[in-house]
């Protein structure tokens, strides 16, 4: 059982498609396989106009696994792959490579060189090579087609409630904590650093976040996602997270950073003194956010927060 696509974000539309593949697989006693691409085809053809990335590969893999995918095939999208004719794509990938018996694609699926292959070509190929082809209709939310583009728009606007509604889960980024420049520590705001492998994340700026994976409960924090223009001209994207009231050695640990609210856009400051003042203000606003959330949730939430804030790890 096969489905093909970029699956950026694994949003509710993707999830509906995966549910259909799982049901068909269960009925036939066959495993569920997803084929996706790296890089995104538009990153290959038009890198300057490529869409922002919602998910890194790790988060995409985990989301697909959570929705019942048994096998994942990541095709390296390069000149050879892009140059295949629709017929070669069907023969080499779908038939000989994956031995497909049943294939489900979305309503806008195109394939092969110059996107020459369409659903009718696939159906004809299915009849010739003995595999079933189905097409998934559009899935809508509040009258709007659920798509990766809609999720990107919500994230770019800092509308995490909307992103949650489209994804079916809070928006988060997972990664291992790596060593950085240690500048935050010098300024009095030590940070966890997570590398972002792609150059165009779906959001940038300063955010209120909570961090999973370091203690029993999520830890309150403030985060910066972007290029750090005041201190770095390398063009490298970095996610930096300052934990509130937490001390511990976090290097090498796998954490999940869940985004709660946008505070401001990234800015370039005239020196470290201005940067330090801005970080201090961001931290005060993050503390105010969590204090308001705790007050809204009552005494039990305040007790839980007090416990998590004093957690320590070695």
From TrEMBL:
| Single GO BP term | FAD biosynthetic process
Q: What reaction does this enzyme carry out catalytically?
A: FMN + ATP + H(+) = FAD + diphosphate; riboflavin + ATP = FMN + ADP + H(+)
**How would you classify this enzyme at the top EC level?**
transferase
**Domain (Riboflavin kinase): residue spans on this chain:** 166-291
Keywords associated with the record: ATP-binding, FAD, Flavoprotein, FMN, Kinase, Multifunctional enzyme, Nucleotide-binding, Nucleotidyltransferase, Transferase
Q: Which PANTHER family match?
A: RIBOFLAVIN KINASE, RIBOFLAVIN KINASE/FMN ADENYLYLTRANSFERASE
What is known about what this protein does? Catalyzes the phosphorylation of riboflavin to FMN followed by the adenylation of FMN to FAD.
By sequence similarity, the record places it as follows: Belongs to the ribF family.
Protein name, as recorded: Riboflavin biosynthesis protein
Q: From which organism does this entry originate?
A: Pandoraea nosoerga
């Amino acid at each position: 059982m096969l489905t093909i696509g970029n699956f950026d974000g694994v949003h509710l539309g993707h999830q509906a498609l995966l549910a259909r593949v799982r049901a068909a697989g269960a009925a036939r006693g066959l495993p569920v396989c997803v084929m996706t691409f790296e890089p995104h085809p538009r990153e290959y053809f038009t890198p300057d106009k490529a869409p922002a990335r919602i998910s890194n590969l790790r988060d995409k893999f985990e989301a697909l696994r959570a929705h019942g995918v048994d096998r994942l095939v990541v095709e390296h999208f390069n000149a050879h792959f892009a140059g295949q004719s629709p017929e070669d794509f069907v023969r080499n990938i779908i038939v000989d490579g994956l031995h497909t018996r049943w294939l489900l694609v979305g309503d806008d699926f195109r394939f092969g060189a110059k996107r020459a292959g369409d659903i009718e070509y696939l159906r004809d190929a299915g009849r010739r090579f003995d595999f079933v082809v189905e097409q998934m209709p559009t899935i809508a939310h509040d009258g709007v087609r659920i798509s990766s583009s809609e999720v990107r728009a919500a994230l770019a606007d800092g509308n995490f409630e909307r992103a949650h509604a489209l994804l079916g889960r809070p928006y988060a980024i997972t990664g291992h904590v790596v060593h950085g420049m240690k500048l935050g520590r010098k300024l009095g705001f030590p940070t966890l650093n997570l590398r972002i492998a792609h150059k165009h994340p779906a959001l940038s700026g300063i955010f209120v976040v909570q961090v999973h994976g370091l203690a029993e409960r999520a830890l309150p924090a403030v985060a910066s996602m972007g290029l750090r223009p005041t201190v770095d001209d390398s063009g490298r994207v970095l996610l930096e997270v300052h934990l509130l009231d937490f001390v511990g050695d976090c290097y090498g640990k796998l954490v999940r950073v869940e985004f709660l609210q946008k505070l401001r856009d990234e800015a370039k400051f005239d020196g470290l003194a201005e940067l330090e003042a801005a970080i201090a203000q961001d931290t005060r606003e993050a503390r105010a956010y969590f204090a308001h959330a705790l007050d809204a949730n009552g005494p039990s939430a305040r007790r839980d927060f007090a416990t998590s804030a004093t957690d320590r790890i070695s």
